[in-house]
Design goal:
By secondary structure, this protein is mainly α. It holds the Pfam family FCD.
Amino acid sequence: MKENAIEVMDRRTLVFEALKNDIINGNIKFGEKINENEYSIRYNISRTPLREALSKLEMMGIIERIPFKGVFLKKFDSEKVKEIYEIRLELEYIIYKEIKEIMTDKHIKKVEKIVAKSQKYNNSNNLAKFSETLEEFDNYLYSLSKKELSLKILSELSFYMNIFKKTNPNMQETVDEHEKIIEALKEKNDDKIYAALGEHLDNAAEYVVKTFDKISI
């Protein structure tokens, strides 16, 4: 019995998401070979949708095919990490320039409450909950924007950001940086917004690079 197109597409999507989750959760290590036979058994899937998922990851620059050796999860070098954060800076600047004009006191109070939660979890050294508030901070501000293309590209970058979450941020520094971003938005000052975002993302990139160097990926 032939599979219909929807079943095939669902299978491709499922195996692609499974691979992404294994990468994000560290089940596949940087530089590790991805054995097609092993993963087709693990996911209970034929090699065809697995190869299609791997090809998609290759197009994203996540994996690489080495002739006569196989498929490997790429290592992140410092230049690639910095480039990803530079792209994020420019996209967020586009969004924040827009939303500063429409943010009300209600919006400001909401984002200040999120940062207050970050401070609470920083004080209790609860990294898991702290990380959730960082995502909440970004998502709330993004939700105020109508810059659909910038938001779409940021969404695609989120895969890299989720990988970087495996590195532990300097929590107090991050709280302080978010407070500076809020102040710049309240002042509706483009230069201060760019400077606050730049400081925050430069520090994040530097921390990721240092952490990746320590674990020799």
